[in-house]
Amino acid sequence: MNLSTLVREDMHALYRFLVLTRMLEERLETLFKQGHIVGGLYRSLGQEATAVGTAYALQDGDWLAPSIRDAGALYVRGLPPIAMLRQYTAREASPCAGKDNTNHFTIPELGLLGPISPLGTQLCVLNGISLTFRQRGEPRVCMTYQGEGASRTGTSHEGFAMAAALDLPMVIVLEHNRWSFGTPSYRASAVEDWADTAGAYGLPVRSVDGNDLLQVYEAAREAVERARSGGGPGVIVAETYRMSGHAQHDSQKYIPSEELDEWRARDPIGRFERVLLEDGWLSDAGLAEIRDDVDQELTRAVDTVLSEPHPPAESSRTRVYADPRQDPPEPWTRTLATESEAR
Length: 343
Ligand SMILES: Cc1ncc(C[n+]2csc(CCOP(=O)(O)OP(=O)(O)O)c2C)c(N)n1
Hints:
Blueprint: H1 8-33, H2 48-55, E1 63-65, H3 71-76, H4 81-88, H5 121-136, E2 142-147, H6 154-165, E3 170-176, E4 179-180, E5 183-184, H7 185-188, H8 195-199, E6 205-209, H9 213-228, E7 234-239, H10 257-264, H11 268-278, H12 284-306, H13 339-342
Helix pairs in contact: 1-2, 1-11, 1-12, 2-9, 4-12, 5-6
């Protein structure tokens, strides 16, 4: 494994991103239970290493299109953690100005294309962005993520095929986390090895243990460098596991408990901690210091966010379209027909 470019600061930063992702989601879960979050809350529990390790291989100017399981990639790309808290609690200062409270947001300044609800379409949009980079001769790379379920949609097949046929500067991370909502992955595809699904497009593919941060990073770095130097797209199949339900409302009763136990023993954070300790990158006290620091940052952020306002009701008619001239001038509440009209 060639990890020669990672220095001590990188190892500390990687650990910080992992625990930040986990601890922030724990805060979100508490906020959900307290009624501060209404609607879907999507966790990346157990998949933090895939998101953090892949995104860490990108550079300034690259673009990233996460799925709902890749919060860690957003922090690596520069999203302030407080922005995620604001978004989920629908604060006016959030990326969607309080009008949407899941993690579907785009921030062009950070090179972030948010998840797009119809699964598979995001890949096609990213095809377009990476084609632009290629046509302009800019050495920029796009990275995106697909759950194995999303990768079985028609649009996703078009996206994979186009990336391969046009040799686009892209890295596609196929997150094989075993479940698509309540559907096990063997019901989504008859292949046993998900790398075969990527190979079918003629794309170079590499399978990694998605819970092993350094293995993920190394594969991502190789694929990113190849894409940046004109070598075309690549696929990384991350073998991992969705440790929580599809979203907060899903109790995942349908998942066999032995399966959860088996994967709990492969927790990506515990595994990275062992590497850090055994190879002398950090001591126990050093690990604790980083965790405490993140914890304090999150306490301050939660206090701040809860003191901030939701958007005013009137704002529901502004920023509906990119061009404000198209925003609806009048409230769009339906006027009730009078009784005689109704008849
Ligand atoms: C085309 C389409 N079908 C169904 C849905 C509803 N849906 C949203 S997420 C999801 C599960 C996705 O599973 P997968 O792609 O494996 O990702 P994971 O949730 O496991 O990370 C489903 C069925 C959707 N958003 N779009």
